[in-house]
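Bench log. Compound arrived from synthesis this morning; before running ITC I wanted a structural hypothesis for how S-adenosyl-L-homocysteine sits in the protein. Inputs:
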Amino acid sequence: MTDKSKRFPLPLSSVVDKKSSNGRATRSVATPQTATRNAALENSRPITPSKTTAGASASSHFEPAAKAVERSSMISDAVRKAMVDRIAMLGVRDAKVLAAMAAVPRHLFVEPALASQAYIDAALPIGHHQTISQPFIVAHMIALLRDNQQGGVLNRVLEIGTGCGYQAAVLSLLAKEVYSIERIKALHELAKNNLRPLRIANIRLQYGDGMLGLPQVAPFDGIILAAAGLEVPQALLDQMTIGGRLVAPVGSHHQVLQLIQRVGEFDWTSTTLEDCRFVPLRAGTA
Ligand code: SAH
């Protein structure tokens, strides 16, 4: 078991807090510079409450710790809320998407050393030269998928490029079934470890080349690419439902976000949206 997988059944606070010699959690003196960081570090509220947190409150011996967890998750909820407010300000209006962004603990998807930056609206490294996407772009792409003829209902969604699993977790709150493919084995495993403690029943992770899609479970009414190719692979276009939507960054040095809608068996329409910056879509596995 890796350090990371050991970490996840525990409240984040029990990992990031430094223990003093008497075993109690200590906190460095808060300054304006560290306040946001501490708030982000202290939160430990997964989508589903963990057994560890519930167990802690059952014993009076742990009561102070349980109260500290409760208080700190309120602080962290506020930090995440600020991130969501910024996403709304940048133009995402879909209340369900904003609620999903507010519910997923992004700090659990980055290395503990980066947890203080988890609620900044920026992409962050996740190893293997890949990144967790910027929160705004995650919300924006999902909102584009939901802006469909079905009033936002998404039955089966495919994500290409699981990375650390963050966007899949957000999607799981907005789609009935989420399939996500990652081509780098170590990241596929990382995503599994990150998602396991959140006990999300409707995500299926797949190790493989996402450029091929998942013909065995297609068609999808939503497809999101989290990596930029020179064009959208035909296999993915073929795996869309009629009426389905696909959002993808396209390009190399200069990339644009593309929204593709399937309007008939052999007909797709494409809309070019704003410039964007993603890691490259690569063929094969690693
Ligand atoms: N979805 C992530 C973003 C991950 S970055 C998030 O929640 O933030 C994009 C990922 O796409 C990288 O992990 C990269 O390895 C992966 N990727 C690139 N080409 C791919 C392909 N052909 N199939 C599957 N994954 C791919």
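What the model suggests: Residues 130-133, 160-164, 166-167, 181-184, 187, 209-211, 226-227, 279, 281-283 surround S-adenosyl-L-homocysteine (CB under 6 Å). Residues 1-46, 48-61 have pLDDT under 50 and may be disordered.
ITC booked for Thursday regardless.
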